[in-house]
Design goal:
heterodimer, A: 149 residues, mainly alpha, Four Helix Bundle (Hemerythrin (Met), subunit A), 69% helix, B: 292 residues, 2 domains, two-stranded antiparallel ribbon, 5 strands, globular
């Protein structure tokens, strides 16, 4: 134990010295309107997903019409996503990866796929809620896993 | 005067010699044998489960591999020490680990060293995997034999001096590689989180030389890539219920129905396929961190 503590101190000191030249960049809180618009779009998407989620958790009563409306809204927002991201804007607050603009066609495909999937899905009864929600989750994940920090 | 100089030089020589011997000892790879291990016949079905829980594919999946998902490597991990590139660990004889035997695999997973006796960089989370049971390692190896090979060459790490000297990692291992668990309960929940899931590797901050700060266990960390943070999953910060954690591990939905992204997405892809009872155990482990 004695040996380990001394050794640790030695290595730590050495490493600290070696890393002393490392510059830590502090993120500023810039607010790009394009980024804000993107974030709002994603927030709206989450809010509509939350309607379905709360219904599934029985925190709000099941309502086929409300659920379908949320799905259609998700579809609309998904299809609006490529336009919202068309201009490459970065912001320290943003979680969007720059690879989006290197692979914008694929990014667009994923957004359109989620839109199509949400358009073609119906929720007539409570049992259809979870499968529908999982389809939405799969669509979101496909994009988030690649293009979100 | 002359005698004093001779004595001084001799003393310095002895000190340097002793330091050198100590360095050689500490930094040497471990010699070991798997002959004495008490193991049942490898069970590839359990091995496939261990593979999921340990998330091997999360880091070693290759975008360039046309088949996808077969451990051809290539993902880059940017850190303060340089950029690490996940190697090809498919069964390719040419580029992967197709020529390995169980001992080689055991040495990699449990001791963090390759068959030639060189230390792995801890970007490979052997500090967690070292806590894996011998039987799980054997079962995982059994499952590995069922995986295809992908003939894609591994990329080279871009690590700066002095961190690129693998031998020095022996010192690092002396400091940080240990068999014991952080959680005293040491039950299956502990095993799932600390050994297989290796959650702490990302969710616990690291010190200046990359060791986990155990005093801030699961309290979140800087993203090694330099952008943003890996969130705290300590219950005092997370504030999620058991049901909410289980839902997240099952579907990727947060309590606010945001959907998982980034590196965590592939983790959820794996946890969603675990037994529900194991997802509950992972949740229980995280919640009991708040008891301390």
């Amino acid at each position: 134990m004695f040996k380990k503590i001394n050794l640790k101190r030695f290595v730590l000191t050495f490493a600290l010295l070696a890393l002393s030249a490392t510059i830590l960049l502090a993120h500023s809180g810039t607010k790009d309107p394009l980024v804000i618009k993107r974030m709002e779009l994603m927030t709206s998407m989450a809010e509509n997903t939350k309607v379905l989620g709360q219904m599934m958790k029985k925190k709000i009563a099941f309502d086929s019409e409300l659920a379908t409306r949320a799905l259609r809204e998700i579809a609309k927002l998904s299809k609006a996503t490529p336009a919202a991201f068309k201009v490459a804007a970065s912001d320290p607050k943003s979680e969007a990866k720059s690879i989006i603009w290197d692979e914008f066609d694929y990014f667009t495909d994923l957004a359109v796929q989620l839109g199509d999937s949400a358009t073609s899905t119906t929720i007539k009864n409570y049992e259809e809620l979870r499968p529908a929600l999982m389809k939405v989750a799969a669509g979101c994940k496909a994009c988030h896993s690649k293009y979100r920090e | 005067m002359r005698l004093k100089a001779i004595l001084t030089f001799s003393a310095i020589g002895l000190l340097v010699g002793a330091a050198l011997i100590l360095y050689i000892n500490i930094t040497a790879s471990k010699s070991f044998s798997v002959d004495g291990l008490v193991l049942n016949e490898a069970d590839p079905i359990n091995g496939s489960y261990v593979y999921l829980a340990a998330g091997c594919n999360s880091c070693h999946i290759s975008e360039e591999d046309p088949k996808k998902g077969y451990l051809a490597g290539g993902q880059k991990f940017e850190t303060n020490f340089g950029t690490f590139v996940a190697p090809n660990i498919s069964n390719s004889n040419l580029y992967g680990i197709g020529n390995w035997d169980f001992k080689d695999f055991y040495g990699a997973v449990k001791l963090g060293q390759n068959p030639e006796g060189n230390h792995y960089f801890p970007a490979f989370p052997f500090t967690s995997y070292s806590r894996m049971t011998d039987q799980d390692v054997a079962d995982l190896w059994g499952f590995w034999q069922t995986l295809p090979s992908v003939d894609l060459p591994s990329g080279k790490h871009e690590v700066s001096f002095p961190f690129n000297i693998r031998r020095n990692l022996g010192i690092w291992k002396t400091l940080y590689l240990q068999d014991s668990f952080m959680d005293e309960k040491n039950d299956r929940a502990t095993y799932l989180v600390e050994a297989l899931g290796h959650c702490a590797e990302c969710h616990t901050p690291r010190d200046a030389i990359g060791g986990l700060k155990s005093s801030q266990w699961m309290h979140g960390a800087k993203n090694p890539s330099g952008k943003g943070t890996v969130p705290s999953i300590h219950p005092k910060d997370l504030g999620w219920s058991r049901e909410e954690i289980v839902e997240y591990l099952s579907s990727g939905f947060t309590p606010n129905f945001d959907v998982v992204g980034g590196a965590m997405a592939s983790v959820i892809e794996n946890t969603s396929k675990l037994e529900l009872s194991d997802r509950i155990l992972i949740s229980d482990y995280l919640l009991r961190l708040g008891d301390k």
